[in-house]
Amino acid sequence: MSDTSQTPAANDLPPEADTPATEGAVSLEQQLADLQAKHTEVSDAYLRAKAEAENTRRRAEEEISKARKFAVESFAESLLPVRDSLEAALASHAAKPDTPVETVLEGVTATLRQLASALERNKVVEINPAAGTKFDPHYHQAISMVPAEQEANTVVGVLQKGYSIAERVLRPALVTVAAPK
Fold this sequence. Notes:
Order of helices and strands: HHHEEEEEE
Shape: elongated
């Protein structure tokens, strides 16, 4: 007699009985391959982004270096006509030493206007406080305190004009200040 409760042999199993195990292995292998491909893709994108960031940083450093090196170029270019005028005045005086003072004064005045224009084009602003202006240590340098008939700690007179560029003081105005009474 045979026992019907015996387990069937492996080759006696229907074909669909071993499919889930095989499908699971194929599915895991496929997932692994997909993940490896995705990893390769992400790694490549990362390396490209890193290289691009490095190139951008290097280009920015080069631009900053060039900007520093040539920042004064525009300013120097605007001062060249002033130098030309001064040299022309000296050459004119050498050729005609008896030039009237009025003519020399006209030339100096014209050259001063050229210089003022060049400074203005380059955003160099004069600091020349009027008498009575409140003393500001950011823009003024007090040379002395003098008794005056005005409010204490105000500008009495300007000994030397100051200058600023882009709201940064190049040189403070040298001033005398009213002493407290």
